[in-house]
Please model this.
Amino acid sequence: MYQTIYDVVEKRGRVKTGILLNGKDAGLKYLSEKGSFFYPEGAEENKEAEEFLKASVEAAVETSVVKNGDREIFVETYEKNPRLIILGGGHVSLPVAEIGRMLGFHVTVMDDREEFVTEERFPMADERIFGDFDTLSDRIPPYENAYYVVVTRGHLGDSACARAILKRPFAYFGMIGSRTKVRITREKLLKEGFTEEQLDQIHAPIGLPIGGQMPAEIAVSIMAEIVQEKNRHFRTYCDEEVEAAVRRRTPGTMVTIIEKKGSSPRGTGSKMFVFRDGSTAGSIGGGKVEFEAGKHAVNIRNTETKVYELGQGAGDLGMICGGTVRVLFEPVNM
Model:
């Protein structure tokens, strides 16, 4: 199950999952990309539970526990390897690529002028593509966790890019230009059959309104808006140590923080993999919480949750930060 999750997020950059936490179908898990369901060992198939779980996952927008009636579902949106795709290699594109690389994006630059996408001009880019914008769909594969910045030199290029982007998944789509240029492009796309709802997804004019005039200032406003959009909803961080542990295909338990109240060292979605010998990969915050959860995880054979108190009262774990964390235990590679 987790092997499949990590394979999909590596390929697509984003994937959603959900697991039922209570009731007779507790432990049933759904993977949105494949439309697949994973049942705990020995569980009977339940189509009603599958439909309920699928609908709950598709409706959720971030990593959290969703309550629906007397049922609880832990929904996770995994993200990894964000891609910044800059369409147009002009003067604004250079600082956008620089800042994007600094922020950890995989950077692609495409232009229909060969001299604008050379290695000398864009040494910071991971990919440089020379070609007509009409060929975008053939040159750049679809990717869920993609951030598109359209900075072509005219509305024809803008229209070609928008036409392709609106037919594929994206995390962000921004288009530079004057209000007149943006209006012309929008009117053209409406006549081609795109809806107002689709076009409203475009950030145009692009960037946060910080009054930038110089190319570097405009680039800051663009990347600031992208960072704001990227962090609008809480996502699950893909810990490389945990992923490596899963790929070893060794039996163990996935330990995940699914809820927190008050202050705690790690947030919702933090994971630790516990091998059967008690060794671990990743972290849910260290200290006695992690020690107690790791000790409990060694003997887990069925999906369950457990709450740990972090305050300084009697019976708690003596953590200075205070609060509680609810932890999910899932057997993996059994």
In short: The radius of gyration is 23 Å. The chain has a mean pLDDT of 90.
